[in-house]
Structure formats: C-alpha cells, structure tokens
Amino acid sequence: MTINNPTEINVFNQKHVTNLQLSHLQHFYKNKDANVLNLLQWCNCLVVDNHFHLTFGHAEILMNMKKTMLDYLLTVVNGIGFATLLLNVANAHWYFFDMDLKKPYKEFQGKHAMVGFDTKGWMLYLGKSRNEDVYLTMAPNEFLIGHFIPCHAGYSTGLLMMSQGHYRQMVIMLAYFLAEIPELSYLNIENVYMQDLKDPRPAWSMVTNVM
Questions:
Q1: Is the dihedral of CA 69, 62, 142, 114 positive or negative?
Q2: pTM for the predicted model, two decimal places
Q3: Taking the CA of residue 164 as centre, how many other CA atoms within 13 Å lie in the half-sphere pointing to its CB?
Q4: Where are the domains of the chain?
Q5: What is the pLDDT of residues 184-210, one digit of tens each?
C-alpha cells in the first residue's frame, strides 16, 4: 500500500494500532481469502503467537547450510574458542580465514542478532571467513557456564567496539597463540606483554610481527 499525499500519511499514522495475530494471517492464507487486503485499512502491529516461537538454546533448529538464501546469519559459539569458524567436514581445500587485526573500529552489525548478552564494549572485528565477518567477543562467565538468562536480539546498552586497552590485550593474546604454531612464521620479540595499553601509538613492531 503506497501513500503519496503527506496529509494521508498523517491520518494513517494517527489511527488506532490494532494487534494482528500471525495465526490470523495464516488463516487467510490457508483459505486463500482475498479479504486479507482489507487489513491494509488499519494500522496493524503483528503479534507472533506462542506456538510459532522457538525457544532459544533448546536445539529445536537443524540447518542444512549446503544451499542457503538467508539475508542474515549469526553463529555464536557455546564455549571459549574459535570452533564456529571450522567446517564440519574432514577436508575443505577452499576454506580460508583472512585475519585482520587492524580494524577495531569496525562495528558489529547485530541489530537483529541473538548474541545472548549485553554486547556493549565487547566486540572486536577479526576478519573474514568464507565472505562472512568474524568477531571476537568477551562474554560474561555466567553466560559461558550456562547460568544466564539470554538477552533479547540486538540488546546492547552502548557502543559495541572494545576499548583501546581491551583491543590491545586481544591482539597480544592472538600474537602469543600464533607464535606457538610451529608451521607459521610469526614471531614475538622479547616479551609480547611489554605492549603499552595506554600509549596513543601502539608499538606493535617492537613486540610482534603479527600485524
């Protein structure tokens, strides 16, 4: 329904908002009832019936990711680590993870994301894997051990990007991990923990070559 006259838009916006159950629309659809178009005369707020809800964390969804046309997909690990980046196959020669630790300012696009906890100040962009953005987040201990009531989708009480100090701590942690992999030529000079968390200019080249 398109309204071009500003006066008509104001009249429409001032109408009483009526709750419209999703099951009511389902009834129209199943019966191929053309009267559904009459609903456009009113301001409706769509209400999802309880029996259409899927309870978060109850393993009621099984996804086949071989072919997908999802507009938005968020995968959250159920423990500490990067397991969610790995494929559930024995071999995948086309797999890659392009790590990028130089964009702490890149915002997490999680307006509709069910992360499960307040993401204020806890998100750090890490790069891309299979054309999907990868973020590292610092989660509350209560969330990790399961004694936590998940927040609703998109919940955040402030800016999501990590502080300068936390960002540098995460880089130092990853630098330590990467230097422990013998097949890769990453090197930490002297003590990687010598990095100053408060200095305006990070001295990465003085402690590590991962950047």
A1: positive
A2: 0.63
A3: 8
A4: 6-52, 83-206
A5: 888 888 777 777 888 888 888 888 888
